[in-house]
Design brief:
It contains 12 helices and 7 strands. It is of the alpha+beta class. The strands form 2 sheets. Strands 1-2-5-4-3 form a 5-stranded mixed β-sheet. Strands 6-7 form a two-stranded antiparallel sheet.
Length: about 280
Amino acid sequence: MLENALKQIVAEKKKDGASQHIILNYLREYIQYAILHSLYTHKEYKSLIFKGGSCLRVCYGLPRLSEDLDFDIDVRKIKNFSINKLKVFLEKQVKKKYVFSLETKLQGTKRIYLKFPILHRLGVSGQGESDRLYVKIETDEDILPFAHTELTPISHSGFNFIVRNYDLPTLMVGKIHAFLFRLWFKGKKNEIDIKGRDFYDLFWFLQKKVVPNWKCLRKITGIKNDRELKNKLLAQIKKTATAQKLRYDLQNFLPDSQFVDDFCLNYMEIMSRYLNERKSLLRY
């Protein structure tokens, strides 16, 4: 049963001294694999295009945790897609295979929440705190222009399946777009206006020397060349990034708190290594 696996995760992460937020995201990750297995072993949903931070972690080994599952829908392959139909399918699959108690909720026409009332039994939250572990699934019917997809075999935590996902150059375009244009506010006075995970992921792409899908990037951002892209990325970092803002988000997705502190304090210097170089790391 799912609960036994989650109990083991909690025990291991508590032993490691992980924070509550980190433990919650490890629990979400295990459930994500169960959901991905259900989707990608189904004849209709195996055409979903996996994307986002969870895709980077599951398919390419991104070191940080992720909390959501994001998909684009190819309506040529999934006829008459319905978010409600997907919700019902997931509810039946999860209850049949993993747990008996599950709540589901639709938010708008793109988002599904799966709510597992299990945190008190796992010892992750106490009295007065929520008992529900939330896992979010988000869908979009707008496929990225000039996108490339590939098939990635996954074997993890006893789950085996093949994912259809955007390739790394196309995923990098999605991340650059989020880095430059995402609207996100947190804090008592909405003083946190960036997602630290976007800034970490951009570093990861540059460290891996991934070259963005330039046809796609030009189409959705209007950025024409390597130099213009580097200038815009640097300007965004100088304008918005502080150690406090970066840490607010990243501390929930990277288990090593000392690394998070050091990375956030030195982010500008680290990124300058890539974005101020004369040679092109983002060649087109």
